[in-house]
Specification:
By secondary structure, the protein is mainly beta. The chain folds into two domains: 141 residues, no CATH class; 99 residues, Immunoglobulins (Immunoglobulin-like, Sandwich), CATH 2.60.40.10. The chain is 2% helix and 40% strand. The chain contains one helix and 15 strands, in the order E-E-E-E-E-E-H-E-E-E-E-E-E-E-E-E. It has a six-stranded antiparallel β-sheet with strand order 1-2-3-4-5-7, with no helix packed on it. Strands 9-15-14-11 form a four-stranded mixed β-sheet, with no helix packed on it. Strand 3 and strand 4 form a beta hairpin.
Length: 240
């Protein structure tokens, strides 16, 4: 369904279908509950005649990567490693395949296999994960936004600034016309000094004033229904 590669400069590239977030770009069908233009008869289920999200040209995806591992020729979901070997996963999340600690009951997995899809990389440690089975799902309940903060960055000491990238954030819509809006806010959680975030309310923004050491930044996504989600990214500055 799609192809992803890592080039000689550790950039990740993708081409092909992106319906369930399999490219990790932050895109999914705007309402993956109804899959408007497809032929699927069941809600929250994969459609083998996908229209939304096709990438007919190679696109460069955020972050620096060592390798990408996909599940099969269908590439419903993927795992990738950053420059220090941390694992991330994204795409279709049926049957605990993304290793992110949340799952739904077996009957719900069969009926709504795309309920927990994730459209952009999230850091995971599947072997140490504590799992939580969610209550029986309510298909008509408003959906939470899905926050993204990008993958960890490892920079040499002379670097004083970098880009925070939350462009992979997503909000499912209830219908063809978008009715739920999202806003975001970047904040510094920790670090050796107080940095300057140029545009805290922008999904992608410059951060300056960095020193050697480890920083953690949080991107909080809030939708117009008052629901919120956040993800954090670590910026390590030293000898790499």
């Amino acid at each position: 369904m799609c192809v992803q590669i890592v080039d000689a400069e550790n950039n990740r590239w993708g081409i092909g279908n992106n319906q369930t977030g399999s490219l990790g770009s932050g895109y999914m069908s705007p309402s993956w509950r109804t899959n408007w233009d497809g032929a699927a008869n069941a809600i929250y289920s994969y459609d083998y005649t996908p229209i939304h999200g096709n990438q007919n040209k190679w696109i460069k995806l955020p972050g620096k990567w060592i390798r990408i591992k996909t599940n099969s020729s269908f590439v419903f979901y993927s795992y990738g490693q950053d420059m220090l070997g941390n694992w991330y996963s994204w795409g279709r999340n049926k049957g605990e395949c993304l290793g992110q600690g949340e799952t739904i009951k077996v009957a719900d997995q069969a009926n709504y296999p795309d309920w927990l899809d994730i459209p952009s990389p999230r850091k995971v440690d599947p072997l140490k994960q504590k799992w939580k089975v969610l209550p029986k799902i309510n298909i008509d309940a408003p959906r939470m936004p899905i926050a993204s903060a990008g993958i960890n960055q490892y920079l040499i000491s002379r670097i004083k600034s970098t880009i925070l990238d939350g462009s992979g954030s997503h909000q499912q819509q209830p219908g063809k016309i978008p009715t739920i809006k999202i806003s975001n806010q970047w904040t510094q959680i920790s670090g050796p000094n107080k940095s300057k975030i140029s545009s805290p309310g922008s999904l992608t923004t410059l951060v300056t004033g960095l020193e050697s050491g480890n920083y953690v930044f949080r991107n909080t996504i809030t939708n117009s229904l008052g629901l919120s989600d956040y993800q954090e990214v670590t910026i390590m500055i030293g000898r790499f």
